Amino acid sequence: MPRSRLGPLAIEAKLGDHPSQSSVWRAIHVQLHKAVAVKVFSSPFGATPEARTQFAAEWETLKTLQHPAIARCYGGGFEDKEAYLAYELVEGETLAAEIERRSRLPWESVLEVAEPIIAALCYLHERDIVYGMLGPDKILYAGLSPLLVDVRTDRIHSNFKTSRPPTPHEIAFRPPEWIDDPTSITHKSDLYSFGATLYFAITGRPPVQGDTIEEVTRNVREQTPTSAASLVLDCPVWFDKLIMQLLEKDPAKRPFGAPAVQLALAEVRRRSMSRTGVAEHASAGFSPLSVTDQKERDEARTLLGRELVDETKEKLPDATLWHDKSWFLIGVLIAMLAMLAWVAWPLNEDQMRKRAEDLLAQETQSALNQAKNNYLKPMINQFPDGEHTTWAEEQVDRIEMMQAEHALSVKMKRNLALKNEGERLFAEAEQFERFGDTSTALDKYRSMETLLGDDPKYRPYVNLARRQIAQIENRSFVKDEAATIIQEKLDEAEREHLRGNVVAARQIWYSIIELYGNNSNVGPLVLQAQQRLSASNTPAPESASPNPLKPPQ
């Protein structure tokens, strides 16, 4: 696509792990000065009026999808023989790139990725949308959060799709039914690709491999993947069992749906936090010491390489090798149990702090969650008067504050609904601070301490407010009254208007009206902003999120 413009978008550079193979570009909306990721489709023979109508209907549907783990679609358009979709630009690396950099991920980190992505699939499947081509290159990190990108409502039947043939690596993540008939895929096909992605993240290799497309295709149909737990010994048996069920060749043998997988992942997390899984993992196999029927006797005979003696028959001379004798096997079992008891023995306070510090130093979402759930909170509960309890409480507050701030920033960026009073009040105060009115922002942050300070549910937001209060006070100055700030903004708007930047000027006028419309002390200045806004050529922008493909209406 050797062009510099595409509709209202100025094209900059290709995106993706392998830009030469990518059809996704970084672009800037010229009027809104907003960066987006635009996916371009070339369809000289498929761009019929009917196909264009269907594609337009698809992007209208995509614009309605709002989920924290799904990158927003802003719309689309046509330009000559090309069509395009504009998505939220995610500035982060893909899961594929992270695995390439680290060889593989700890299973705890994979669980952190799996939970939001399966929630996104639940959201799509509830709306009868099959993602269709899930893989590690379709998951990007937005800060601490994994996001599903490149969502389509029907990528199989659409005339507007990538014409590049799939690579052997990409085929390894597709379910057998996709190989036989891509039009027959269902929501269970997404579950297979989801399981293949988890398998790849844990083991560092796809569930099936091959050097050519034909070899990989044959293996997808016929080859049973090696158990993830047999390749990565620290992978819990219950996580491995779920992944292998997702990779069943027969869709009917996979989990019933994404909600069932979501529940199974919650169970994996519960068990991982309980520390009871060590013994279960080690003892999951067959034990020759618990033989109760003929079938088990046959299995034991195969395992031990000798006949079991029937006590009702005449005793034969014992020619059993020493390492097969019962006393030796019992001794090995006792040693294993002792080792398990040592591994599962509760940590003392110093050990818990040391492990928590190691995780906190990583500063990743997975590590912070592990530190909080596995060490810091248990330390507080087990040692309420301990030497490190105060430190642990401070770290929990810091982690929850970071997580609350990140979740709020994601919601604000995607214009999602704020669900509690803490989010709403902090977002309002932060808006005043960004606008430059630190005096009003300071008042609102302090009001949060008064209104929410006694409610543990809002503790992270109160701590955020206290942090902002300290930062504002430490700057050694607080700007003058709101009237001074509004006047400066009005002057700025006039300068923008004289330069011809009508959109920028209107945004300033509208912000003044929205923020100070109920403040009688600055009523004349607000009225001035209203008059200037009314005098402009176009109506005021809506407070809801604008479509980046259209200037404010």
TrEMBL record:
Transmembrane is among the record's keywords: yes
Domain Protein kinase: start-end pairs: 1-266
Protein source organism: Novipirellula caenicola
Keywords of the record: ATP-binding, Kinase, Membrane, Nucleotide-binding, Transferase, Transmembrane, Transmembrane helix
Membrane-spanning residues: 327-345
Entry keyword annotation includes Transmembrane helix: yes
Region annotation Disordered: where it falls in the sequence: 533-553
Tree of life domain: Bacteria
InterPro entries in the record: Kinase-like_dom_sf, Prot_kinase_dom
Residue ranges with Polar residues bias: 533-546
Protein name: Protein kinase domain-containing protein
Pfam families noted in UniProt: Pkinase
PROSITE patterns: PROTEIN_KINASE_DOM
Ranges in coiled-coil conformation: none
